[in-house]
Amino acid sequence: MTRSLQRTFASLLAAAAFLVAAPAAFAQAGAAGFPNRPLKIVVTFTTGGAPDILARLIGDRLTADWGQPVVIDNKPGAGGNTGSDFVAKSPADGYTLVLGTVGTHSINGALYAKMPYDMVKDFAPVTLLATTPNLLVINNDVPAKTLAEFIALGKKEGKMTFASSGSGTSIHVSGELFKTMTGIDMTHIPYKGRATAIPDVLGGRVTMMFDNMPSSLPLVKEGKLRALGVTSAQRSPAAPEIPTIAEQGLPGFDAVSWFAMFAPAGTPKAIVDKLQVEVKKIIQSPEVGRKLAEIGLEVVGSTPEELAAYQRAEIAKWAKVVKDSGAKVE
User: Fold this and answer.
1) How many domains does the structure of the chain reveal?
2) 36, 104, 184, 204: least CB-packed within 10 angstroms?
3) Looking at 146-155, 228-237, 320-329, which range is the least confident one?
4) Residue 298: inside a domain, yes or no?
C-alpha cells in the first residue's frame, strides 16, 4: 500500500470513528447544558391529590437545584388520558414531563375502547417515584363501623354507589375489584378528579370511595370520613391501626397505586438519566422522604429500566382485573 493510500485509509478510519462517537458526544453535551429554560410537569388530575402533591414537591426542589422554573400544569380529563396524551405528543427534549399513574400507564389501555396514545411506545420511563395503598372511606352517617358490617349492609340494601377520580384510575378499579369479590351491586360514579369526588362522599351523595391515602388520610384523622380498610397486602406504616381489606375477609385483595415520571418517547437517554438521578436524589432526601411517608407514600426511586419492567408487569395484572370485572369505557 502506498503512503498516499495509507493516509487516505487512515483518514477514512478517523472519520468513521468520529461518526460513531459523535452521537454519544453530542448527547452528553446536550445533557450537560440541560436544562437551560423552564420545565413543565403535567399532572393528569386536579389539584390536591397524590400526583399533584408529588409533582409540586419535586418541582420546588428542581427549581432550587437547577435554577430553572418548573411549572406544574394540571390537565385532568378522561381518567388521566388528556394530560398523558399532551406529553406523548410534546417535543422529546426533556422539558415536558408527565407525572404518570397506575391508571394512565397500566390500566387505561385495557379499560378504554380507544386510547389516544400507547402506554409503552409513546413514553420514555424516567423513574418510579412512589407507591401507596388506597383507603376505602365512607361518610360518617353510613351505619357501618367495620368492613364486614359494610358488606352486609351492601348486600341487604342491594344498591350502592362508589366515587372515583376518573375512569381507569386505581381508585376506580379498586372499586370494580371490590364489587367483583363481594358481589355487591355497586354503581361507579366517575368524577374529573379527587377534588370534585371527595365533597360528594363527605356530603353523603355517594356511598363510598377508594381514595389515595395521601389525600384521604388527613380527612380520616380529622374525623370527617371513616376508613374501613387499606387496599395493599400489608398495613400501611402511615396508619397501622387501619386493617387491610384482605385480612377482613377478602383474601387476595391487593390494589396499590403508583406514581412515576415519564418523558416523551425519543428523549435522549443522557437527559433521561440526568432527570432520573436528580429526581431520585430529591425524593430520597430525608426531608422530602419524611413528608411523603407521613402522608402514606412509600418512596422508590427506580432506574428507567426498572420502571419499564414494573410497568409491563402492571399492565398484565390490571388487564386481568379489568377483564374479570367487565368494566369498559367507550
Assistant:
1) 2
2) 36
3) 320-329
4) yes
